[in-house]
Amino acid sequence: MDTVVSGIRSTGNLHLGNYFGALRNFISMQHENRCFFFIADYHSLTTHPDPASLHGNVRNVLTEYLGAGLDPEVSSIYIQSDVPEVTELYLLLNMHAYIGELQRTASFKDKIRKHNDNVNAGLLTYPVLMAADILMHRADCVPVGKDQEQHLEMTRKYARRFNTIYGVDFFPECQAYRFNGEPIKVPGLDGNGKMGKSEGNGIYLVDSDADIRKKVMKALTDGGPTEPNMPMCEGVKNLFTMLSIVSDKEVYDHFLASYNDCTIRYGDLKKQLAEDIIKVVAPIRERIADIQSDDDYLRRVVRLGAEKARESAAATVKEVRRIMGFKPF
Ligand code: TYM
Fold it and tell me: 148: CA distance to ligand 1 center in Å?
């Protein structure tokens, strides 16, 4: 039985990238493993320090986790800030995280470009906090999308470094978990490489059927192939990638063949794609609506989750302190 950990920042509603990159994969393994899935509210502060929306965002993500099928009876579903041990481990790991390597992280460079007015130390040390989330449970396996691979590589580096410096074999080196063996990147349908909250191109788990149809119909394409087996433009490639994620293989093969023999009608492809996305989203959206005003249930879920997560975290931090030389008088 593996220990599995993952989380999503609470910066807004969850989109299909979050679902197919992380959530679905986690759900698929929750019954066979020791599983922790949390809401990364500390991480959200690196870019969204807004007291007026913090709690509401956490609440939304929680209901979306449950609506998507996370089972609080078998997984620990918790809020990062309910587990104070994570901040202690973060501080301790920071002593062995080098500024140079943090500055070279792709996500940090990207954030500097986008948030030039707020390049804070939390952004710089984002991968250390993420490593603390994972190492706190001594996880073997982390279901994340392709964009998080570098962060996992850094987590492995911190685990190795800790083990080497202190001459122990304490932290395991976690592996990314991929649903079909391939790291997944859900594209934006606006011709953007990646679907993301800050890109404003998301299809969300709470979107109505009409919204989904509208968003898909607006997806960027070109004038259509003019000769057999033509290379696809970025927008069309993204539509096919989406199709490969949500639709049956026969559907994908049918549209690919019609692209290659130039008979494709993008309108038909988009209609099919929208319906296949709705098949995934509609039942989740209905479950979200059922639970979102059930305060007692949500409170029970996060209490139970925090209890289980703290038990695991406290055992790790206690051992880390001992290894590093802290002793009681
Ligand atoms: P966040 O909120 O940026 O993303 C959450 C998860 O969604 C995945 N994801 C995608 N996957 C495929 N295609 C996309 N377009 C797409 N957009 C987002 C991300 O890869 C991620 O798995 N830093 C983490 C949160 C975190 C975490 C952790 C994860 C904090 N501590 C410990 C795992 C373990 C993040 O990327 O959040």
Answer: 6
Judge if the beta carbon of residue 174 lies within 6 A of ligand 1.
no
Q: Is 127 in the pocket of ligand 1 (CB under 6 A)?
A: no
Q: Is 249 a catalytic residue?
A: no
- Dist. CA 311–CA 19, nearest whole Å: 28
Per the prediction, the chain carries an average pLDDT of 96
The predicted-structure confidence for 4-39, as pLDDT tens digits, reads as follows 999 999 999 999 999 999 999 999 999 999 999 999
Nearest CA to ligand 1 atom 6: 18
**Measured between alpha carbons, how far apart are the two ends of the chain, in Å?**
38
Residue pair 39/58 in contact by the 8 Å Cβ criterion: yes
- Greatest alpha-carbon pair distance for the chain in Å reads 79
Residue pair 283/52 in contact (Cβ under 8 Å)? The answer is no
List, for residues 219-261, the tens digit of each pLDDT value.
999 999 999 999 999 999 999 999 999 999 999 999 999 999 9
Q: What pLDDT does 183 receive?
A: 85
| Beta strands at 175-177 and 141-143: parallel, antiparallel or unpaired | parallel
User: Which atom number of ligand 1 is nearest to the Cα of residue 143?
Assistant: 22
Closest of 46, 25, 19 to residue 130, by C-alpha: 46
Q: Is the CB of 40 under 6 A from ligand 1?
A: yes
d(CA 257, CA 262): 8
Token pair, residue 112, equals 């500097």
Q: CA-to-CA distance for 230 and 227, rounded, in angstroms?
A: 6
Position 179 confidence tier, pLDDT thresholds 50, 70, 90: confident
